[in-house]
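ok trying this again, last paste got cut off
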Amino acid sequence: MLNGRDVTPASPIEAVKRGLAFVPEERRKEGLVINDPLYANITMAALDKFLNRPGFVIKRRQTEAARGMIDTLGIKASSEHQEAAYLSGGNQQKIVVGKWCIACADVYIFDEPTKGVDVGAKRDIFRLIEDLAAQGKGIIYATCEFSEILSITDRAYIMFDGEIVKEVVSRDTNEKELLYYSTGGN
């Protein structure tokens, strides 16, 4: 349920229409079209915003929006025309998050978003997540990094064997308790 309505999507397209965004663990396989330019990757989740009346994509609007998101997220790229394949892992991840920012999702689901990124990119991703939360967006953050859980969440649901076994308030717990429940302790 989201805002009093059922949001059980039947397809990824329906999920996007209902305001859900998914930032996958495997950005190169699932989050990007790696050989496409940045402007195409950044705008793909909200392509309808860049169409004219007959339904053709207005490339100028795409590139302007992409340039703005590149600046906003501090993505290090030569231009919005650069292929995603030539960016660092952290900048690729920012592209994946940026496309959902343009789509204006209500709930962001992050699956191991800092996997394989450097410390600076990790800090930028955390700041972006905090900004989204400050805007009232829902954030679901899945990770096995206990320090991340404790540093960026208000509460955590600990899973073991595919089921939630414990809910904790992040400021009232520690890595030892998270480890205990995540390995089957009860």
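PB: full thing came through this time. The two ends are 29 Å apart (CA to CA).
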